[in-house]
Every structure is written in C-alpha cells, then in structure tokens.
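Sorry to interrupt, but I need a hand with the structure work. I would like you to pick a protein and set down its sequence and fold. Please put the record directly below this note.
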Amino acid sequence: MASRDTDTKTLLEKAEKDTDDSMATEKVKDTNHDSNEKDLANDNDDVEIKDVKLTMKDHDTEAVTMATKEESADEKTGLIDSDSSSSDSDDEGSKRDVAMATESNLDYRIDNLTKSVLRLEAGGDLLPDSSVHRKEFKRYRKSMKGAIPVRFEKTAKDEFPMERAGCLSLMTFSWQTSMMWKIYRKGVDTIKDMVIGDDDKANPNTERLERLWKEEVAKRGPKKASFFRAVFRFAATREILTIISLLISFAFSFSTPAFVLHRLLSYLNSGDVDLWVGIALVVAISCTELGRSLFFGLSWQINYKAGIRAKAGAQGLLFRKILKLRSLEDKTVGEIVNLLANDSQRIFDAVVIGLLLLPCPVILLMGLIYMLVLIGPWSLVAIGTFGAMYPVMYLVSKLTTYYRQRCIVITDKRVRMMNELLTCIKLIKMYAWEKSFAKTISGIRAEERAILEKGAYVQSISTAAAPLVPVMAAVFTFLGYILTGNELTAVEAFTIIAVLNSMRFTVGVVPFAVKALADAAVSFKRYKSILLMDEIKPHPWQVFNEKYALVLNHTTFRWEKESLADKKEKEKNKDKGKGSKTKASNGLIGHEELQTLKDSDHTNGDVAFVDTPTLQDLTFVAEKGKLIGICGSVGSGKSSLLSAVLGRMLHISGKVAVQGSLAYVTQQAWVMNTTVRENILFGEPYDPDRYAAVVESCALLQDFSDFVDGDQIEIGERGINLSGGQKQRISLARAVYSNKDIYLLDDPLSAVDIHIGSHIFSECILKQLKGKTVLFVTHQLQYLSNCDQVIFMRDGMITDTGTHSELMKDDTEYSSLIKMFYTQEKEKEVSLDSLGGGSKSLHKQFSVDRPAYFRQRTISSCSQGSQEAKKDLLRQKSVMSNKTVNADEEQKPKGGKLIVAEEKKEGKVGWPVYRTYIKAAGGYIASAFVILTFILAIGSQSFASWWLSYWLNQGSGNTTVTVGNETFISDNISDHPNLRFYTTVYGSSVVVMIVLTVLRAFVFMKATLRASSTMHNDIFRKMMASPMQFFDTTPVGRIVNRFSSDLDEIDVRLPSLSEMFLQNTLMILFALGMIAYVSPWFLIALVPMVLCFLALNIIFTSGVRELMRMNAITKSPLISHVTATVQGISTVHAYGKSDQFIEKFNKLLDKNSLYFYLFVCSNRWLSFRLDLMSSLVVGITGLCIVLTYDSLNPALAGLAYTFAIQMTGLFQFTIQLAIESESKFVAVQRLQHYSEDVETEAPAIIKDKRPPADWPKSGEIKFEKYKMKYRDNLPLALKEVGFTVRPKEKIGIVGRSGSGKSSLGVALFRLVEPASGTIYIDSVDITKIGLEDLRSRLAIIPQDPVLFVGTVRYNLDPFSRHKDSELWEALEKCHVKETISSLELKLDHMVVENGENFSVGERQLLCMARALLRNSKILMLDEATAAIDTETDSLVQKTIKEAFADCTMLIIAHRLNTVLGCDRILVMEEGKVVEYGRPKDLMASDKSKFKAMLEAAEKQQEQI
C-alpha cells in the first residue's frame, strides 16, 4: 500500500510539473520565502498564535490539507500552525492521514492530468499525435479560407470585411474598396460600429502571447528569457508565409531587368526589329511587374495581420501584468503610458518592417550570379559596393540603438514630468510655479533634442544611402571595366543599371528595418523589465478557525525589495538617493539618472534587505464582525498595515492570513472618470434598495440633489469637479455597496465635515457595516471608544492593543495621548465658554469612556431637508441647482457632461498647418534652402546616369584601330581620345553626390528638429497659460497624448517620412524628365495618367487621412484608462475588479486597433493601384521606344527604360510616403490646435500695472460686490460677496459643501475671472495686475497634499531662493525635521511620484513647510491638517499661530477646533455671506447660523 501510494504521488507530482505553467514560472519568483519558512519553523516554540494553515493557492491547484484533526493544546483555541504539522516528517500518523485525505480522489486527478498532458479532447481516444495535429490544423482552418481565389460570402453590416475576403481580394486589398468609397462620400462615421475580427482582438492574442512568454521563462530562466523570442514565436507562421511571398515578388522584380529588359534592348540593338515581337516583350515586362505587385501586396497583407496581433498581444500582456504587480517599483505612470503608446508601435514596426531584411541576401546572390555571367569578375565591384554598405548599416543600427536608449529615458522623464504637472496644475498655478516647471521641462527637452539630432543625422545618412549605392556601384564597376580596356555596350550598361536598381531594395529597406529592429530591441527590454517584476501573491496561509477573519503572527513587512546588485550601485552612487524608512521609495534611487533601460534581470537575484522594515513583529487577530480602530502618529505604519493585509508589501517573516473578501477605502480617494452611480456600483449589479441605503448612510443624498444630473453626473478625471469630502464619501459608498467580508478603511473621515463624519460613523460604519470585520484607521480619536478593539501603532510596531476602556485603565502610550489632550480640549471648552451665549449642551462631557476632549465641533449644520432628499434619490431628474457642486470646482453643464469631446478636424490638412511647420523650422528661406540641397543631391545622381548614356553615345569618337593588316573605326568607348575627361567627370559625380548627401542630411535634421522643438515649446507655453477650465474639461490622457505620441510623430516619424518623400518625389520627377527627354511622345500619354492619379488621390486619400485621425483620437481614452488604472491599482486589486478593467481595456484597444489596422491597410490599398499605374508607365514607355526606335540610339533607349522600371516600386512608395507624411501632419495639426485655439488666461505680468516689490505690506483684503461663475452656462458660484479682512486678522470660513467656501480661494487666486465686482489687497485691484505678481505674493496649503518627483529640497524651494538653514527651520516648525534628518540624503532625498514614499500626513507637513518658506502676508488654509494625527495637529496649530502671526489668514475648515480661535467667523451659504463677526458676538445671537451649527453638531456627537 505504501509503495502504491508513493508511486501514485510520484506520478501525480510529475504530471503537475509538466502541465502547470504557474509552477514553472515560480522559478522567477522571489526566493526569500523558503528561507523565511525555515527560519520561522525553528521558532515554533515561541509562536503565540497558531490559526493558519499552508495551502497551495499560489499554484491554483487543489489544496491538499496537510493538517491533522488530532486533539492538542493548540486545538483548544481552534488554531493550527501549518509549519509544525508539515515539518514533522517522522510522524507516521500524519503520513497515514495525508494518504487518507488524498487517496479518495487521487486516481481521478491522475486521469485528468494525464489527459491534459496528452492534450486529449473530451471523448477522444489515446492517440496524442493525431489529436495534436488535428488541433494544430484546426487553428489555421479559418485562415486557410483566405487561400480561395474568390469568395462570394456576404459580409455582415458591422463585420470586418477582410474576414470573408478571397486570395485575390487580399492581394489587391479590394476588400477595402467599398469602405474607402463610403468614407469619402459619408465620412468615417459610417464605420463607427465596425468590429475588428475575432482573431485580431486583444484578448485571444494576449492569452496566446502570455502562454508563450511563460514557456520562454520556464525554458530559459528569467535572465536569459527573451521577450523578442516569444513575440517571434507568436508570429512565426505568418512570418514564414511573408518571406515566401516576398521571395516570389523579388523573383518577378529581378526577372524584369535581368531577362525581359535585356532581351528587349538586345533585340532593339540588333537593328532587325519586328514590331509585334517588341510589343510582346513590352507586355511581358508589364506582366512581370504585375506579378511583383500582387505578391508584394500579399506579403504586406500577411505581415500587417501578424503585426497588429503582436501589438495588441503585447499591450494586453503589459496591462494584465500591471494589474498583478505588488508595486510599480521604479516605474512611473508616464513610463507605462510610453510603453503602451509608443513602444507597442515599435514592436509592430519590428514585426512588419524588420522581416524585410531576410530576403536581402538572396537578392544579392541572384544579382552577383547574373552580373558574373554578363561582365565577369568586375561584377564583384558592384556587389562589393553593396556589401560594404552592410557594415555601415550595422554601425548605423548600433548608433541608432544607442541614441534610442539614451533618448527614451529622457522622453520617459519628460512625459512623467508632464503627467505630474497636469495632475497638479491647480497647485502650480496657485503658487505661480509655471516658470519653474517650464524651465525644468525645457531643460529636459533640450537634452532630448540634442540626442534626437544625433540619431536623426545618422538616420538621414542611412536613408540617403539607398538611392546612392546603386549609382556608386555602377560608377565604380564601369570605370574599372572600361579603364582595363573592356568594351561596354549600352545593352550591358543599362541592363546592369536596371539590375542594380532592382537590388536597391536590399539597401533601401535596411535603414527602416535596422531602425525598426533597433528601436524594438529597446522596447523588448523595457517590456521584459516589467514582465519580470514581482506580482502580488495571495497570502500562502489560511485561517483555520472560523472565528477569525484576519491573523498576523510575528509578521514583518517592508515596502521595497533591494537586490545585492542595487546595493552595490547605491554604494557607488550615494548622491543619487535612498529608500525612505517611513514608506516605500519604490526603488527610486536617483530615478531619472539611473534608469537606463535595465532588463530587470537582477530583480530576481538574492535579496538583501538593507533598510529597517516598515512593519515589525506584528501580532494580533481580528475576530469576524468586529470594528477595530487603528491610531498612531504620522508615519507610524497605519496605512502600511492595511497595505500588508492587501498583499502589497514585501513579506519578510511571520505569517499573515485573511479569511473573506476585501473592500478598501484609500486615504486619498480614487474615483473613475464616469458617473457617480457607476463609481459606487463598480461593476456590481444595481439593487435600488441597497443602493439607496448605502447612499443615505454615506451622506450623499444632499449632494445628489445639488448635482445637475443626480448620481448620473459624470465625474471628471481625478474627481476634478468634486470636493475632497465628496470623493471620499463616494469611495466609501463603493466599499459599502460591494458587500464584502472585511473592510479596510484608511482614514475615510479626514476629508469630510465633522457632522457628516458623525453621520457616516453612526449610520455607515456602525450600522451598515454591522457584522462585518472593519479595520478603521483614523486620526479622529472621538470615534475610538465605539470600536470593539483599538490598536495603537508607533514606528511600525503595535505598542498597545485592547478595548478603549482597557487601554485607558493601563499606563499605555494610548492613554497618555488621551490624557494629554484632555487638558488641551478642556482649555478649548473654557475658551468657548468665554465666547458667551453657548448652550449647556456645548459644555457637556462624554462619559468616562468618552471624555469631552474628544469632541470636535462642526462648522455647518446638519443637512436640512434630508428626508426630502431621500424621496428624490432615485428620481434622476436633471435640475440645475442654485448651488455649486462643491466648494472647489464647478458644476457640469446640462446633461451632467463635464469632459468635452476631443476635437476632430475633417478634410485635408490645410496650408495653415504646413505654414506653421515651415515657420517653426526656420521660415520660408530656410525651408527653400533645405529643398535646394535635396534637388542638388538627387540631381547629381540622375546626372551620373545621363552622363553614362551620353558617354556611350559618343562611342570611340571615330577612333580607328588596326588589327593585323586591317584598319577600321572602333566601337569601344575605351578607345575614345577624351577617355580621361569622361572618366573624370563620371568619377567626380560620386564625390559630389556624397558631399551633397552629407550636407542635405545635416540641413534637414536641423530644420525638422528645430520645428518640433519650437512647436513643443509654443504649445507648452500656451497650455501653461490656459485657464483652469481647460484642464477641468480636458482629460490628462488627451494632453499627455499630445506631448508623447503626437510629439513622437513629429520628432521621429514625420522627419523620416518627409525626407524619403522629398527624395523619392525628386527622383520620380527626374525620371519622368529623362523619359520625356528621350521620347517626347511620352508626355501625351502622361496627361491621362496624371488625371487618373489626381482623381485617385482626391477621392481616396481623404479616407486614409480620416482613418489616421481616428487612430489618434481612439488612442486618448486608452491612455486615460491606463493612467486611471495605475493610479487606482490598489483599489482595483482589492475589490478583485482586474477582469473588469481588462475587459474595458480590451474594448478600447480593439477599437483603436480597428482604425490603426484600416489605416495601414488603406496605404497598401492605394499603393497597389499606384503600382498598376506604374506598370502602365513601363508599358507606355516601352511602346514609345519600340514605335520610335528609328530615331533613338540604344543608349537613350536603355536610359529611358531604366528610369521607367525604376519608377515601378518607387511611384507607389512615394505616394504612400506622401499620404503617410500628410497623416503625420495631423499630429502637427493637433499640436497647432492647442497653440492657437485654446483660450488663454490673463498675462503673467503687466508691466505698467506691477505692484510694489514689498506688496502686500499689511495684508488687508476687501471683496467688493464680487460675482463669479465657473463657466458661462452655469449659475453664479459667488453672489455679490462683500466683506473686509483687516491686516493680520485670522478669518475662519465655514459653511456646508457647495456653499462657496473654496470659491473664495478660487476668486482670490484668480483661477476664474469675476463676472463683476473686484477684490482689493492693500488697496490694489487684483483684477488689474498680472497673475504672477498676484499669485507669487500669496500662499495656500491645500487639502490634498501635493509633492513632485525630485528632492525634498526641490519640493520646498523649487527656485532655490533659500538657504539650507532656512529649510531646516521651516521643517522644524512643521514638526517634520526629524523624519527628513533620518533619511540618508536628508534634503537631497528623492521624492517619488505623488510623494508615495511619505505618508499622507508627512506630505501635508511638507506642504506646510513649503508655505512657511514663501513668507507671504496672506495665507489660505483649506483644511490643511485633516490627515494629521491629533498630537501633531496640536503642535502644527501652535506653529500656525506663531509662525503666521503677522499674516492675514483665511482658514477654510471642516473641524471647528481649527477656527474657534479665529478673530472672526465668515459663514457662507449658497454663494453668499450670511454671517460675519466675532465668535463671541455670533454665539450671543439666538438667530445665529453659526450657533445653530454648533448646537446641531453637539446633538450628533451625543448620538454616537
């Protein structure tokens, strides 16, 4: 029996090993877990809590319970420790139990796994080979239908037409003809409902690429794994078919000059010309050209499909990976956007264009063999010239890769900075920091441009080499051949030139293919670096006792993981930064300086933890259905504890187990750019009753009644049109509606008014969440006495835990904190007493468990009319409220729509766009000079061919030669008396070509990059000068798209395409000129062809252009979705909504892929038809030569036909370049829109209206009949507001949400201009002076703390105006000096994106220090201490009173204890000032609204 069990389990383990991908990829995971398990097993004697068991959840296999049910001392508590049971290998009883637990279903599992290994389908017999073959063939069955020449199946209305196209339709792209006609006649909206083919969608391609990537990692390991190899395997079948099709196409292309043209020229040179034979040869040439076009079109068709699938698969795989990450480490939102927007395009280019390199050696070999037969060994000179270009191209590829690697780091840095700037634009404007950021971004752009110039110059040289190489090869070969006395005839010369031109593809494609592969090599590494990052893992332990929901057993966590390699790097670069001890620095060690496209291989090596863990030795259990309050000072690890439960921190030691589903409310609320209802539902089905109860408990009823469209109103990006409290309540409502088992609430009441907070705590947390397990992090201590358990944290450790009563009885840190503040709050009560008129209820103290010092009074009354609001909750009627939506921002226009649709220009790109680009490039003269260099460079190449024709036509110059006794006139051009003259001119043409090409490349590079940089700077300046309304109604993703994707088009693709377009256009014009020079009759035939071309161009290029526009437009929501997802990744993962976000991503990606696919195919559609016209040109040229041969010599005939054949591929390629170049000018048009059509706010400085340098001296503020509305179609937010603030006065501003409190700040900083009235500061009318003069003299501490990527020093003093001693003094006054001084680099410590390596409280203190350094006479505080613990808050309030004693202060407050000490109180209601006076006077009046607020708040407090 034991033997059978052993064999059975061995077979099971082997089968699982062979079939489970996740088991294979486990090798790349962090290896510290095993060692930690061993360490923990050795400490089993010290374990206090044993309530978890180890499961196989990580591998998604069926869990085999390894624990026994024996009675023990541990089991009396219902807890079993997994380590002790699994590590006791000598316990035979355990072995028997294991066997009994697994034997029952072992045979069944082996049978299933065996079938899985053999890939058997249900019901199939045991013939694995045939089954696999059938399955593989079935995979291609649908694609094989495309091999049918003609298919007569009808396409459904919204079906992708290519899905039912036959082989001929695919070759000619005819499946797109009707669609192009519809777009021309009715616009691009006719295909808005079209859906891309099922096989081309993101989901199936992502899954397939993910499987291939896992196999690659499993086979080679993470270090040697290549994402390129996985992508190649992904597209291998289609790549092989593409190569076959290309080889057939090149065979046709080579046969035209090598056989048919040579035969025709030889036939014409013979003198005995039969007209019909000549016509037959001309027809043969046209047929070979047609064959070339058909198979070339087929190769593109196959390749595009492979490319679009690889692009979608790579984007989908990256997005899925992002949703699985534990943390972003050193990756930023901007970098991820760049990866999805730009690097995915590089992968597409590599798949589509990189493949064209492979047939090149075959063409060179064919050319070599042919020319060896024709002229002997001298053909090696021509092939050698071609071959010599390959090392040059190799060098070009290396340089391109090098410059691309350097450039992409800087581009990421610029895009990240832009993303950060746009996210924090409101604060930047209030602080008048536009110049600081503009200077920083201009510096980054200048650095980026310097590298772009070098890369562009190298690329320009390689582009010019394509047409240069065949000419140089011909010159070198013919000079050597002739100077050695060989006879060169016109037939041989122009046949060889035509063959060399057909081989030009091998050189012409190299720059594009090399660039595509070089760029993609960088992108593959960048993708790999993210794909190998650590994923979030479910906790490997499980709670055994049903009594508990959460167990932590001697658990230690940290935020960042640092490898030994990184440690060595840090030792070498101590000036680059270090991880914070308070929270994750995400590995950002001098982020921008050290981020050099590493492939992250080192992230899977041995891990060395060099910093103190964030959370240390945590031990506690959370019983099901209990409310657990968590408190502690700023940076004590409260938020980190919740992150650890979520699995977002690195587990070092101990055990953590969670039983039940999770809901998470972040400290800084995250909302989506959709309706309020969709934010709350978050993908859950709509239940009206539950929804109504949740909304009421979260105090959202009054807000819904104020909103234009109720809960159907659209939330702007980042909740821009909501107050902080509204965002937090919506976030809380989302959690409550989700109906999870465990709730992690990270200080959810900090951003709301106290009366609303009281309502939420009693109605939501205590009632709605009754029976749920709640971990409630808070700084508001008055709620803790109602918690079932209280946890007090300090320095990442739990110092006290128990009920509130127990902790108050003992001498704990918690009780000390309470007692200290009892005295302070009592003093405030006495202060309130002195105001007079207060009711007795205001002086009541809580019970023993709730002393009076816990109370925080509200600034506004209870929501009146809440009962009426309940009735109207589900009546989603759009009624314009007479109140603003919130204190911070404006309401939406009717219909609840805030975000305006992206502008979509229609029609041809107009002359103004080209004029803008020309002016940006340096003006008309500079542009004309650039074109002149092109004309001279291309003209020199055409001159060389014409000179050869002229030279051949001169023959021997009637030179007589004597052979034996016979004298006759020689036919050999080497006998010409002026041979040296002809060879000198012919040879010198090469030198002239090279010089002009180098000059052309330099001039063009300078002009184009000057244009892109000028446009970047112009749009950036204009955007920074735009009013806040623009940023409120424009998604960040849309603006970032302009500065990333669109600017990348103008930086890289537009110059490359434009250069080739100019080059090829001039080559075509010179070619047509040569043909007309030889046979003027050709001009007659040219007229109808030009007319046909113009008709084709006018009708169908509009379709190509519109598809390009739609490709750009559909990319913006994709970028916005990615940005929002990354910002809310912890929320998305906590709720288990990854699939929902992936589904939306796939939907957006599929729509973008559709337009992108149609755009690239439309280019080939037009190209094929132009190829047909080119074949017609070849035929007409041949007929002209055959019909007029009597008046032509062989040299001229060869010259004309050579240029005609050269045009075949060149003509369609040039028109394609013209269309693509124009489509790239759409990017110029989109940038031009922002630089010309966007409204501009008032000037920064008005020279003749500048205030004195020491203004304001005293700080007096006077509002005079001030009216303001956020937009023209909205009601007034402030209605004839009038009041005066005396110098140095402290004014407390109170009122409910939407009363206009923060609108006063908006007015003071002139973020919105007044409708009428004005504001005076020290008798200066602020509406008359420049915005910079105004905003730079004021200071504000916002409710949401904002830190930027950079050093602590940069965040405090971006203009470097203060000494270090002043910075430290400010930090000390704000009680954050100790935190900063504990960092290794202190003031030079790096702050990561969004300040994530500091807690929210620490961020708020740093913002306060920043305001303190401005030394402004006027300061506004917008509930600036909401995220700070009570102890620090008390110290900060003291600092505010002392440090800002000489300032005039406007304090917008939600907590009354922050305004009780103010000189006067301003009460706002519906945009009007309803009360303004001293607190004592307001309290003495029975009709006082302020007094009513206090009394109402007191009643609510008593109810808790």
User: Anything to note?
Assistant: The CA atoms of residues 782 and 854 lie 5 Å apart. The two ends are 65 Å apart (CA to CA).
